[in-house]
Amino acid sequence: MVWKPNLTVAAVIKQDDKYLLVEEQTKDGVLFNQPAGHLEPNESIIQGAIRETLEETGYTFAPQWLLGVYRWHSPLNDTTYLRFAFSGTVLCHDPERKLDEGIVRAAWFNTNEIYELVHRHRSPLVIKCIEDHLAGKHYPLEILTHYD
User: Fold this and answer.
1) Residues in Cβ contact with 84 at an 8 Å cutoff, skipping those fewer than 6 apart
2) How far, CA to CA in Å, does 29 sit from each of 24, 49, 85, 100?
3) Are 134 and 53 in contact (CB under 8 A)?
């Protein structure tokens, strides 16, 4: 048997002391997450974070830093995720853009609101990424290489 983790990308975006989260319908109910998703074939990790943010929020994301690389094993589905999380800014918003299936809405939340919703986070990585962002963790994007 070959084991391999699911590679995901996420965007941690703070603006006016609020973080951008998506509220999404899952098999476990409506949960909160950063704009995030699986990397698609032939795209770079950075391109994946930009694409997922646009598809789930309608915002154009400009990554500035690699926030961190996170490994998490979900006991609910016995799956291991390897998440590359980025911090950066949004350049513009298309409020008319149709969001990905399952996304209820994208909205801005302050840290107190996010902590109050911790029982409805999609994974423990949601709060961990925000805490790392608040702690000032960041690494240059040049640490990642996309080589064809």
Assistant:
1) 7, 8, 9, 10, 45, 49, 66, 69, 144
2) 8, 24, 24, 16
3) no
Residue 148 lies in a domain: no
Residue 1 has pLDDT above 80, yes or no: no
CATH number at residue 108: 3.90.79.10
Looking up tokens 């084991």, which residue turns up? Answer: 3
Range of the domain at 105: 6-143
Answer whether residue 136 shows pLDDT above 90: yes
- Taking a C-beta distance cutoff of 8 angstroms, is the pair 28, 5 a contact? no
* Residue 76 covered by a domain: yes
> Could you read off the pLDDT of 63-84 as tens digits, one per residue?
999 999 999 999 988 999 999 9
Question: Measured between alpha carbons, how far is 17 from 35 in angstroms, rounded to an integer?
Answer: 17
